[in-house]
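Researcher: I'm preparing a figure for a lab meeting and need a structural model of a single chain. I don't have an experimental structure, so a prediction will have to do for now. The sequence is pasted below. Please return the structure as C-alpha cells so I can convert it later.
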Amino acid sequence: MGFGRVDISGPLPVDVWEGEATVVRDPLYLTVVAVCDGENVGLLMSADLKSFNRKITNQSAKIIEKEFGIPLSNIIIS
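Model: Understood. Here is the structure written out cell by cell.
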C-alpha cells in the first residue's frame, strides 16, 4: 500500500478570464492511493480538477497499465 501527492498546477503566467495569473494561490494536486492484497494492485486517483473527460482518463489508465502492469479494471480515476 502506498500514497502519493503531486502538485499539478500549470506553469505561470497563464491567461485567465480577468487578465493574467502570475501566482498560484491554491495549488492543484493529483493524489493516488495504491492498495494491494498480496497478488493484485489497485489505484485510486483523484485530481483537483473540475472534470476529466473520458478520453484523458482512458489514455492515463492505459499508460499506467503499460508502465506498471496494473490492469485497467484496477484503476479508478476521479
